[in-house]
Amino acid sequence: MNLPNLNDLRPLGKTEIRVTPVAMGCWPITGMTSIDVSEEASLATLEAAFDAGINFFDTAYAYGAMGESERMIARVLGSRRRQIVIATKGGIAWDATGQRVLDARPETLRRQCEESLRRLQTDYVDLLYLHAPDPKTPVADSAGALLELQRSGKARAVGASNLTLRQLQEFHAVCPLAAFQPPYNLLQRQIERDILPWCHANQISVLPYWPLMKGLLAGKLPRDHRFAPGDGRAKYPMFQGEEWEKNQDFLDRLRVIGARLGKPVAQISVNWLIAQPGVTSVLCGAKRPEQICETAAAMQWRLTAGDLQAIERALQDRGEPIVGSAV
Length: 327
Known about the structure:
Layout lengths: L9 E2 L6 E2 L2 E4 L13 H13 L4 E3 L9 H10 L7 E6 L1 E3 L5 E3 L3 H15 L4 E6 L8 H13 L3 E7 L3 H10 L4 E3 L13 H7 L3 E2 L34 H21 L3 H10 L7 E4 L3 H8 L8 H14 L9
Parallel strand pairs: 3-4, 3-12, 4-5, 5-8, 8-9, 9-10, 10-11
Antiparallel strand pairs: 1-2, 6-7
Helix pairs in contact: 1-2, 1-9, 3-4, 4-5, 7-8, 7-10
């Protein structure tokens, strides 16, 4: 096991919680939108993440139709609860037909939190998020419920995900935020315009998901790749037509940088995020041990100023990408 380097642990917002620069995103291990997922591999991936030095595990009430992600974390890491940081989320669930339901009413958030704690076999989570805004529930009401859960000791800190800047400000006015979780990567940089500076100014940790844009920025999908039936990535503009070709051209530039540094493209992509001001930890999803081991290794080195400039030039040449909805 590679123990986290205490000098590399980063504070979560203004709290005393310290996390590794790479976290494991625990959505893929459920297999709900990923293919070739097995329980055996998923459990091994959690173990591999811990052994690689990751101390931060990100899950949600809705990660799995019956909370499979939270249950697997308890099975593998329950005996090491004091050595890890667990984040979970409430406000999204699945109905009997498998359709996603947005419900962030205070009573729902309280119920989901209690159920998540039972699944995780713990009496608290380190970070409890509002997973997404509920159009039928004021953000301030959801924030108030999470503040109550924090004050009761069920959560050490509170975060939010997938909110606009205005919604973040409304939430923060009621319940001070420790963290915000948006989609953010080399090809999705919209938060740099307003949300990232606001979070940085308010000492709110930014914890990006989709650092590899659902595998695209790992650089392992060839130009002639054809998605298998059931692979949810095919619906996103990033993986289609002219956007796909532009992305492949951009990846060719990253491959040159990676070859010079002796690092895989996935680590280049993650390392770029680690270097961005305001970013505390990068949520790397994985469904097999080798995937999380590769991205975890990005914690062990840093891109130079010259490397970052070369990446920025490649981004400028690529042009503004077309992206789809995150949720």
